[in-house]
Amino acid sequence: MFTVAALYKFTDLPDYRQLQPVLKGLCESHGIKGTLLLAEEGINGTVSGCRQAIEALKSWFDNDTRFDGIEYKESQSENCPFYRLKVRLKKEIVTLGVPGINPNRQVGTYVTPQDWNKLIQDPDVILIDTRNDYEVRIGTFKGAVDPNTTSFTQFPGVVKKEFDPEKHKKVAMFCTGGIRCEKASAYMLAQGFENVYHLKGGILKYLETVPAQESLWEGDCFVFDQRVTVDHSLSKGTHSLCYGCRSPLSAEDLLSESYEKGVSCPRCVDVVSDHKKRNFRERQKQIALAAEKGQKHIGASRFP
């Protein structure tokens, strides 16, 4: 079994450029794969490796007080859900695109998974899912507002258009791991919203903590690795990805007349160009040929 570690921390890292080769070398020496993002505002990423390797990475964070209290979640996978390691430098560890919004300076009220149900059942609370539309489609909390965004950078525009500090006195937000809603809370406070709450550790920590029989979560949760989705037990879900548009596909999507294996799906069949479709079909042939030879074509596991 491989351990999959999702982590982030908003913390001042003026030396983030110097940290890149250090972290990359540590991960490479222990066979860790996945993605880590470094910026002056902190660190964000999901990586996978054997138990010993992940413990080595955790020890590295423990030895730097700037990472005290790092948001950290684990799950297990039979296969490594990443093909390679990437340690990248960014302007933001989660891109909102609004200068001056920094959770290290101002942030909403953290709500633990144990207290989340009580909060979101308050009739005075408006519950906002800060994730993108394809993630919300797979699963969300009952009664949550879907901003219908395709990118987090669209969130500020939605707030200005759809929400009012005078009308919406209590706002609760959530996302996959906690990072997007943490930054969203900083933005909403800057816009004059007074009572802003967000789910500490995100959906993944909620699913890990709250028993299924007490859960207000409905559906699966999209994750950014080869598992595509996880269920309430954090086991691999039933969704796969469309190679054409990277949208998650349900069992019903795979039965659609508009679905072509490895090429397109009902959501992109009219959008993907004929040139790309030809390339995708050729790639699919190579996957089939590799399978006939008992070989595995890279990327084939996620894309049905």
TrEMBL record:
Keywords: Oxidoreductase, Transferase, tRNA processing. GO terms for biological process: tRNA modification. It comes from the Bacteria. GO terms for molecular function: oxidoreductase activity, acting on paired donors, with incorporation or reduction of molecular oxygen; transferase activity. The keyword Oxidoreductase applies. Its EC number is 1.14.-.-. Pfam families: Rhodanese, UPF0176_N. It is an enzyme of class 1 (oxidoreductase). Gene3D superfamilies: 3.30.70.100, Rhodanese-like domain. Residues 121-215 form the Rhodanese domain. Belongs to the TrhO family. This is tRNA uridine(34) hydroxylase. It comes from Candidatus Finniella inopinata.
